[in-house]
Specification:
Death Domain, Fas, globular, 6 helices, about 110 residues, mainly alpha
């Protein structure tokens, strides 16, 4: 669990206010009306995703997808490294996960 929290902390530190607006826009369909304004930092965004079951220690596919469509390969690479090194989940193990974008993440390694 400590590695997961460290990952979220590192990701949050690399999300600027401008980035946050882009990330919120990328997942606007999953943010109920009126709740978007309460998400003011990367930490708030991750907490929101956890509360709404979009993110947890063993399921990072949602943020992988959001980082990819938001053109943040640096953050995507950090998540993929966590998944493959800490969780020991490889590309082959996640074939059935529809949101995971591993092939495109490989080019950023």
């Amino acid at each position: 669990m400590a590695e997961y929290r460290s990952l979220l902390e590192e990701l949050a530190q690399n999300i600027t206010a401008e980035d946050l607006e882009q990330l919120k826009s990328a997942c606007r369909e999953d943010i109920p009306s009126g709740e978007g304004d309460a998400i003011a930092t990367g930490h708030h965004w991750f907490a929101f995703l956890e509360r709404h079951s979009k993110l947890d220690r063993a399921n990072l596919s949602y943020i992988e997808h959001i980082f990819e469509i938001s053109r943040r390969p640096d953050l995507l690479t950090k998540v993929v490294q966590y998944r493959t090194q800490v969780l020991k989940i490889s590309e082959e193990d996640e074939v059935d996960t529809k949101l995971t974008r591993i092939p495109s993440a490989k080019k950023y390694k």
